[in-house]
Structures are given as structure tokens and as C-alpha cells.
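Before relying on records like the one below, remember that each one covers exactly one chain. Contacts with other chains, cofactors or solvent are not represented anywhere in the record.
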Amino acid sequence: MFDATVPREDQQRFMYEKEIFGRDVMNVIACEGLERVERPETYKQWQVRNLRAGFRQLPLDQEILQQVKRTVKSEYHKDFVVDVDGQWLLQGWKGRIIYSLSFGNLLRSSELVTLDLDLHVLMYEL
């Protein structure tokens, strides 16, 4: 994504790649078992995990969704996409899902706790 949108010489790109991508690559390549901090999972795996934990997904706000789609179409690179699957808002690059977002409620001891945003960062969607 950066190759298409940010020059290689950009200092902020360099810092981002070093700090974020470097840490992620180290985690995937060099860490095993308990040393591994993050384990990339698909949004569908997160959906199962959330349902088991007592979360109930809420529908996406259609007005906000349309505004996001308009903004992406008019201001973002043509390969950046926004899509919907069920009640998930998916953000991707060249057909690969990178982020997924959902909204939900958590029922706990007959008390409803509303969560503003449930954001799942996916390093790789296979």
C-alpha cells in the first residue's frame, strides 16, 4: 500500500515501517509459543470468539457506511476498498482484507453494556 501512496524516502513512512512492520515481522518469524504476542486471525474467527464471549453484533449505521464509501471513492487510492460482509465493515487493499470493524453489545448479568467500537486489526487475511 505504501509503495503506491507514499515515496520511499518519506521519513514518516520509514518510521512506521520500522516500528510497526518490524515488530510484526519479528513476532511472526522469530517468536513461538508463549513468546508470540500476536496471532493474525480472520474477522470470521473473531466473530465466533465474540459470540462465545457474549457479544451481540449490531447492524452498521447505513448513513455512516455510505459516507465512508463516498469518502474512500473520492479521496483514497483506487486500490483501497471498503466492503461489507454481514455486519462487518471491511477495509482492504487490492482485494486483501486488512481491517475489519463491527459494533456490538455485551450482555453481562442481565445488564446491557454498549461498546462503541469493536476493531479487529488483521495483519493478513488468507
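The helical segments are 2-5, 11-30, 43-52, 62-75.
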